[in-house]
Design goal:
Helix content is 38%, strand content 19%. By secondary structure, the protein is an alpha+beta fold. The strands form 2 sheets. It has a 4-stranded antiparallel beta sheet with strand order 5-4-6-7, with no helix packed on it. The chain has a 3-stranded mixed beta sheet with strand order 1-3-2. The two termini are 34 Å apart.
Length: 183
């Protein structure tokens, strides 16, 4: 457990260092001086994230998946960190960011690959605690968190109900740990 905590501390320190260095180099002051923070999140399907607003609230937050931070080396994480910092710098200079040509230029200036997604990071569906199964076609969908609202099989809804939700294709959720169906 101490090794995991140590690894997360090192990743956080390296991320904050890059935030400060690249902010200083491109904006004249560290990103943290402009209110940007760093945290780990619970994501299992993406490595990093950059958020500047949640609703109308300004948050200025970079995050990395705790799951991937523990699994990947710093060399593998660094490109993602630089990618997210490029979004922060883009937002600071023009008030928005996406994966357009302007952001791609920022990514290159930050030393990141100007690509939207990492090609060499995969999600392990067997690690998901929950498994949702379509009662119609048998398709299986892994979920890392318990569903709060009913979902239906997208494939069946698209093919058999003109893309609209139908109770006939409502997914049946199973807890892989207990083996029980969740209602």
């Amino acid at each position: 457990m101490a090794d995991r905590a140590r690894k997360l501390e090192e990743v956080a320190a390296d991320t904050r260092r890059l935030m400060d260095e690249l902010g200083q180099a491109h904006l004249g002051e560290p990103l943290r001086a402009r209110g940007w923070t760093f945290t780990f999140d619970r994501a299992h399907r993406r490595v990093g994230s950059c958020a500047w607003k949640v609703g109308e609230t300004c948050v200025r937050r970079l995050s990395l998946s705790r799951h991937f931070a523990l699994r990947l080396s710093w060399d593998e994480l660094e490109d993602t960190v630089r990618h997210e910092i490029a979004h922060a710098l883009d937002y600071e200079t023009r008030g928005r960011s996406g994966h357009d040509a302007v952001w791609k230029d920022w990514a290159r200036r930050c030393g990141a690959s100007p690509e939207r997604l990492r090609a060499n990071v995969s999600v392990d569906p067997t690690a998901a605690r929950y498994l949702a199964v379509c009662p119609s076609c048998g398709a299986e969908y892994p979920f890392f968190r318990r569903l709060k609202h009913p979902r239906a099989c997208g494939r069946c809804c698209e093919q058999k109900n003109h893309g609209r939700y139908s109770e006939a294709f409502r997914l049946v959720l199973w807890d892989r740990v207990t083996g029980e169906e969740i209602l």
